[in-house]
Amino acid sequence: MALALQGGGAHGAFSWGALDRLLEDGVPIGRICGVSSGAITGAMLAQGLARGGPVAARAELRRLWERVAGAHALSPLRAGPLDRWMWGWDLSNSPAWWGMDMAMRLFGPAQINPLGLNPLRAVLADLLDRALLADPAAPRLTVAATEVATGTALLFENAAITADVLAASACIPFVFPAVELDGRACWDGGYAGNPPLAPLLDPTPPGVLVLIRAQAARRTGVPVSQGDIVNRLTEIAGQNLLAAELAALPASVRVVEIRADTALRDLPASSKFNGEAAFLDQLFAAGRAAAAGLAARVAA
User: Fold this and answer.
1) How far apart are CA 38 and CA 16, in angstroms?
2) Measured between alpha carbons, how far is 243 from 124 in angstroms, rounded to an integer?
3) Nearby residues of 45 by Cβ (< 8 Å), 6 or more positions away
4) In the beta sheet, which residues pair with residue 258?
5) Which tens digits make up the pLDDT trace of 169-191?
6) CA 155, CA 87: separation in Å to the nearest integer?
7) Packing angle between helix 13-24 and helix 37-72, nearest 10 degrees?
8) What DSSP string describes the chain?
């Protein structure tokens, strides 16, 4: 079975829940490809499987998302009790979000963050075990970043995956300066395919491809704010790329999707930056529920 993991910032906790359920149900995982939060989740999944099979993989995934929640507890974007009561998981009404949004409209990331500081990279450097990732027991993993100069996907497999590669795959160009990999400036891998499926066909196409979506395929209403408009445009572009790749798959590949529309379609763009533990736990539960019964579908 091959596994494709979409990116989606904090919404990737939905994928965490889906994977937790697949591992619990004993679904075998072979090839993995992911971008952005899907790349990071895929890396933790692969090294966990190498460390000690499904039980260890579930623990590695939980460790990742608990670290995300711990880092968010120190973030100026966190919401207070009154904000949560009034706005739910939407951060766009907080003064910190207003300030960040205004700064991103007026300045580029190199001006806002001239030192290129990325708190995610420190977390990744601490969590990533490159020896385990390169271990023969680890499933074959491909993560993608988008090369700024060409707009094409740069692909990295197990032994070549570093904290910098994962940070590049998750580099939102409105927030962070491009990450340089071997002299090539890179942005979020989702711009070149969310995720690209071609690596999962090499050397031979899988019988089953499980696609875990961490973005809403459909949304109700029309976005109004600039942030939500840009977010929806990005989602649409990524979906069109993915739809083209799905249509080009060999007829022998059966695609099984775990859709996130119910959990994500009403969440605004700002919630992708919400690493609050309660929010991540809610998405985790939604992912587990969406993956219920998938073992039978994969085996069918």
Assistant:
1) 9
2) 30
3) 19, 29, 32, 57, 60, 61, 139
4) 212
5) 999 888 888 999 999 999 999 99
6) 39
7) 110
8) -EEEE---GGGGHHHHHHHHHHHHTT-----EEEETHHHHHHHHHHHHHHHHHHHHHHHHHHHHHHHHHHHHTT-TTPPPHHHHHHHTT--TTSHHHHHHHHHHHHS-HHHH-TT---HHHHHHHHH--HHHHTSTTSPPEEEEEEETTT-PEEEEEGGG--HHHHHHHT--TTTSPPEEETTEEEE-GGGG-SS--GGGGSSS--SEEEEE--S-S--SS---SHHHHHHHHHHHHHHHHHHHHHHTS-TTPEEEEE--HHHHTT--GGGGG---HHHHHHHHHHHHHHHTTHHHHHH-
Global pTM reads 0.90
Length of the chain: 300
How deeply is 67 buried, as exposed, middle or buried, from its count of CB atoms within 10 A (0-12, 13-18, 19+)? middle
Tokens 């963050």 correspond to 113
pLDDT at 85: 47
Q: 50: burial class by Cβ within 10 Å (0-12, 13-18, 19+)? A: buried
pLDDT at position 110, please?
65
- As a whole number of angstroms, the distance between CA 235 and CA 97 comes to 21
Phi and psi angles of residue 4, each rounded to the nearest 5 degrees, phi first: -115, 125
Buried b (16+ CB within 10 A) or exposed e, 212-239: bbbbbbebeeeeeeebbeebbebbeebb
Write out the two tokens for 208.
């089953």
Could you read off the pLDDT of 61-120 as tens digits, one per residue? 999 999 999 886 546 566 665 565 455 666 666 666 556 666 666 566 666 666 666 778
Distance CA 65, CA 288 (A): 15
